[in-house]
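Same chain as my last thread, 195 residues:
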Amino acid sequence: MERTLPTTIKEYEEALKKERRKERDRRDYRMVLRSTICTLLSVAAIAILVATLFLPVLQIYGTSMQPTLKDGDIVLSLKNAEFNRQDIIAFYYNNKILVKRVIANAGEWVDIDDEGNVTVNGSPLDEPYLIDKALGDSDIEYPYQVPDGRVFVMGDHRSISVDSRSSTVGCVAEEQIVGKLTWRIWPMADFGKIQ
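reply #2:
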């Protein structure tokens, strides 16, 4: 396509206005694009910071917490949260993150009979989240007192879970704890608060 040069001053002024408008539009487009990219990068950085510092996102691997949590579930954990008996926590163990349920806190006495019935400080533990009870892989002597600064944890799938009942894992120190699991975010069919 050939461009024709303006022949009159009026045509020249119109052509100049068009070029200025095009240049202004290009400059505005670049500013909007730059602003959008900066905003997206800032939001991504804040999301990563929040996820790392306050709400770590974890994916469940294995079956030690079934039926409560299944292999492949994606959950949110709340860092530095207060946790009580029967809360589910994530903690570091041998460069991995394990997920188990808090059964007893520091100073409490835990007893488990051969059928897998758990008592804490002499009171039977109500465990509606279990399908079946089992003593599981246990090599500690009962009744067992939880040491200071630690919690006694167990998986919900008692027959296969390796947890505080085994001296291999033992009780979890407070500094090992990643956070308390609060919400399941995937799969969407099971989205909601974790009990």
